[in-house]
Design goal:
Blueprint lengths: L1 H44 L8 H6 L5 H20 L13 H7 L5 E3 L5 E3 L9 H8 L7 H15 L35 H16 L2 H11 L3
Antiparallel strand pairs: 1-2
């Protein structure tokens, strides 16, 4: 009876071991594969981040909080990448030059062009005035009156008020305030009394020294003379 019981116990022990190892081993293999898969998936879904530690990988079993956070991060990366691809680069708009604006809109007042040149526009002057003589004479010197008359108007308003016999204690004389006034004799013997002679000389001087009336006006603003 005792041998029979012993044999029966041994047989039961063997069957128990087989049953336990037969279940535990496959479960351990599946768990290991899941851990490796999660670790590899973390690198794929979140490139550039630090690798999971062994404990984090174990925690990242499907259905766990870590796995949910990982999936949320992957979805966010996908959304951000898609949004970045929809961005457009907007080119800087081109601006018209002050000279173009002046020609298109003669009622405008001031503007600054390349090199710090200030442009001033004005309406055509009244006829039979010194200003009208200058306005009509500018084209012969290559100056568009629509573009440059405003600068010339302001320049000689400040220098002489367009008075042909305006004198300065320094010796400057006439509408363009030539220094000395006798310089204007190169434009005509009547330089002391004829506004047209003075204006002709003044436009020639401006073209030779400053290029345009607006160049002369910009220099005047910066230095107090031209």
């Amino acid at each position: 009876m005792s041998r029979h019981r012993t044999g029966t116990r041994r047989d039961r022990r063997k069957r128990g071991l087989i049953r336990r190892f037969g279940i535990v081993f496959p479960v351990a293999v599946v768990a290991a594969i899941a851990v490796i898969g999660v670790a590899v998936g973390a690198e794929i879904f979140a490139p550039g981040t630090s690798a999971f530690s062994a404990i984090q990988a174990i925690e990242a079993v499907p259905g766990s909080r870590t796995m949910s956070l990982l999936e949320a991060e992957r979805e966010q990366l996908i959304t951000m990448t898609a949004a970045a691809r929809t961005l457009d680069v907007v080119a800087k708009p081109k601006l018209a030059s002050p000279a173009d604006v002046a020609q298109a809109n003669p009622t405008s007042t001031t503007g600054t062009g390349g090199g710090g040149i200030i442009y001033v526009t004005a309406a055509p002057p009244d006829p039979n005035t010194a200003q009208s003589i200058a306005y009509n004479m500018m084209a012969s010197f290559g100056f568009s009156p629509t573009t440059y008359f405003g600068c010339l108007l302001d320049l000689w308003n400040r220098e002489s008020g367009w008075v042909y016999d305006a004198e300065n204690p320094s010796g400057a004389y006439g509408i363009p305030q030539a220094l000395p006034g006798s310089k204007m004799a190169s434009a005509g013997a009547d330089w002391q009394t004829n506004p047209a002679t003075q204006i002709r000389w003044g436009l020639g001087y401006i073209k030779a020294i400053y290029g345009t009336p607006c160049g002369a006006w910009s220099f005047e603003l910066a230095n107090g003379y031209y």
